[in-house]
Amino acid sequence: MASSSETVNKIVKVLDSKKGRDIEVIDISALTTMTDYFIIVTGGSDTQVKALCDSVEEELEKDGITPTNKEGYRTAQWILLGYDDAVVHIFLEETREFYGLERIWKDGVKVDISDLIS
């Protein structure tokens, strides 16, 4: 079952359509006031990491939604896009493995997004 957030669902669909790998959504609303969801995805190269970021921004801007925070675009090892109810983490594979956000936030609830991805 998808997230209750339409923004999160749209982000997942965009990432999937641009061939983002290993997409995960973690509901961390019960653990922190920082945000409700982490969306984590892997890109195969720094070019793809930037393209995933650009695509998310472009699609959400069509709905008038812009990130409140954007970090890491220049180096494209780990790009963070902050939205009101979600933070998108776009990683290169090695960087994702090194930081292990899924391990750090293991007490969050993994959201089943199987109905959103192909």
Features:
6 strands, alpha+beta, 6-stranded mixed sheet
| CATH-level-4 superfamily name | Beta Polymerase, domain 2
- The geometry reads as globular
Q: How many individual domains?
A: 1
Nearest-integer average pLDDT: 94
Q: Can you give the helix content as a percent range?
A: 25-40%
Annotation, overall tally of beta strands: 6
Tell me what the structure shows.
The chain has 118 residues and is of the alpha+beta class. It has one domain (6-111): Beta Polymerase, domain 2 (2-Layer Sandwich). It has helices at 6-17, 46-61, 93-99, 101-104; strands at 21-27, 37-43, 69-71, 78-82, 86-92, 109-111. The chain has a 6-stranded mixed beta sheet. The longest helix has 16 residues, at 46-61. The radius of gyration is 13 Å and the shape is globular. The model has no long low-confidence stretch (mean pLDDT 94).
Provide a concise account of the structure shown.
This protein is α+β, with helices and mostly antiparallel strands and 118 residues long. Helices cover 33% and strands 27% of the residues.
Which helices and strands occur, and which strands form pairs?
Layout: H1 6-17, E1 21-27, E2 37-43, H2 46-61, E3 69-71, E4 78-82, E5 86-92, H3 93-99, H4 101-104, E6 109-111
Parallel strand pairs: 2-5
Antiparallel strand pairs: 1-2, 1-6, 3-4, 4-5
Helix pairs in contact: 1-2
